[in-house]
Each structure stands twice: as C-alpha cells, then as structure tokens.
C-alpha cells in the first residue's frame, strides 16, 4: 500500500466505525471503487485496534467505574447501576458471538459483493429513521432491563450482514425501546468494545498462523489515524444527534444504496 491508500482507509474506518452507516461496507467499497488491491488482514487488524483504542479512551472513566462495580458484584452478588451496565454489555455480546461462530465464514465468502449490501443499507436505514422519529424516549442506558439488553444483542448479531451497520442496528433497537438518542449511541459504543476485541483477537490469531510479513510502519499509521479520527467521530456524533437526530444518516444510507444499484447492477 502507498501512503494515500493508508490514509484513506484509516480515515474511512475511523469515521464510519461508530456512525450508523456500516464501516464494513465502506471498507469493502473503497478498493472496489478505487481499483486498489485489498489491504490485507494485517492492516484490517491495525484499523480495528485504532477504533478500539478510541472508544476505550473516550469512555475510560465509565469503563473504570463499571469494571470496579462489576468486580464488586462478583464478590457481593449485589448489583448497582454500574455493575448492571457492565453485565448488560457482556450479555449483549453473547448473541453476536454465537452468530459469528455459526455464520461468519458463509457471510465472508458469499455476502461481500456490493449489491448484497444494498438491502442492509436501505432497509435498516429506514428502520433507523422510523425508530428515531416514532419511538425514541428519555430512558438512559442504565435503565435497560435484561429483556431489553437481549433484544439489542440479537439486533447486533444481525449486523454481521454487510451493509447493516453494527452501530446503526443497535442504536435502532435501543431507540425502539425508548432510549434517548445519546443513551442509545452510548450503549452501542460500549457494546462495540468486546465485539472489536473479539474480532481483533480472531484476526490476530489468523494472521499469526498465516505467517504473512507485516508492514509495521503502515500498521502503526493505520492505528494512529483510525484511532484519532474515531475518537473525534464519537465526540461530534454524540453532540450532533442531540441537536439534529438520525435522519441525515438515513438519507445517506438510502443514497449510497441507490448508487450501488446504479453502478453494480
């Protein structure tokens, strides 16, 4: 990869990982539209490490508080709001973990064509708009019940389909349950932490087994650029949705889906 490709892919990953627009769809599309060769597994790992570092840094105080309460809950078997939230993140991760074990190879081999992304982009984009318009409320993420968490977790598993967007469908599910926009987004971002960790671990194991030579300067650049852009994206996205909402992302998803139909059909 040259440095332009490194910069573009890192920015695309950092900006789209936490927006409800499907980062996987954009990372698949960039090489298709530019004619670049696939960036390879090692660079994918670097980009996800950057995204992970961003969300860990941004929510570091919340994560520290949740972790302390979670450990305390193991010792006392009593739950407060912070330990409940920590357990909610764990429970919400189980469905996508099981779905990944069962269907990841099929999805990776069969559904990575640009046209397969169109239904996910448009259908789940419309669902996001409807949930934001009709169902959002004032609950926060610490008021979720276990049934609510399971519902959001099952929704997250559907995001394995390219074009769906993990953040988009989990925010949609949370809005349908009456969470506020920023609470839905915060819980979605917290849910991303174990998911990205699992993905990085699996990809790293695959990378080690493959014995592929690693371009360490490119890896480091990808981590830094994707990490900084993802951090800024989280911050400004949370501010943006409080004032404007999800509708601009709905319009973007529909427009992108229509462009894909025109270009690839």
UniProtKB/TrEMBL annotation:
Record localization: Cell membrane
Membrane association type: Multi-pass membrane protein
Segments traversing the membrane: 85-103, 115-133, 183-204, 216-238, 244-264
Reaction equations catalysed: di-trans,octa-cis-undecaprenyl diphosphate + H2O = di-trans,octa-cis-undecaprenyl phosphate + phosphate + H(+)
Single GO cellular component term: plasma membrane
Protein name: Undecaprenyl-diphosphatase
UniProt main location, coarse: membrane
PANTHER family, per database record: UNDECAPRENYL-DIPHOSPHATASE
GO MF annotations in UniProt: undecaprenyl-diphosphatase activity
Enzyme Commission number(s): 3.6.1.27
Record has Iron-sulfur as a keyword: no
Listed InterPro entries: UppP
Pfam families in alphabetical order: BacA
UniProt KW keywords: Cell membrane, Hydrolase, Membrane, Transmembrane, Transmembrane helix
